[in-house]
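cron nightly-structures :: item 1 of 1
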Amino acid sequence: MVVTYRRPAIAAALLVSLPFVLVGCGPVGGGTEAEQPGRAPAEEAVLKSRERVQAYLDAMAAKDVAAGRSQLCAVLHDAFDAAATAPNGDFADHFEVSKSEITDIRPGPSGQQVSTAVTVTVSKKKATRPLLFTVTRDGLDWCIADERPGAHSPAATPTP
């Protein structure tokens, strides 16, 4: 009479192969979003976008043209140099940025879109204007790729 031990052998085979299965997929192995070239986790994109735009807003308030320029993508440098201190430029001498704040950050078609509200004082008159910045990844770093008037409407608040 021959006695076979199939169940223990199958269980042992499954236990031995389980780590190899987990390494190939799931939480133990596989590539994460951060490891994929050209992609960054959403948290990093929001953080870097906020940092770049805040640095630009701070440069506007300080009238530090070089610091503002350094936040922009290289492709914008020539246009920035021509317009930054012009009468309607972000760094014009005749107005003061008395307040600025980031109001919203959302993913957009070309990068993160950062909505801001900038309060400008000219001859004791204050005006708050919305500006929308697009921040994108350029090589290994992040930079402002676009600035335009306007902003996103506030995010909808869920009703209880």
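cron nightly-structures :: done
DSSP finds four helices and four strands in the chain.
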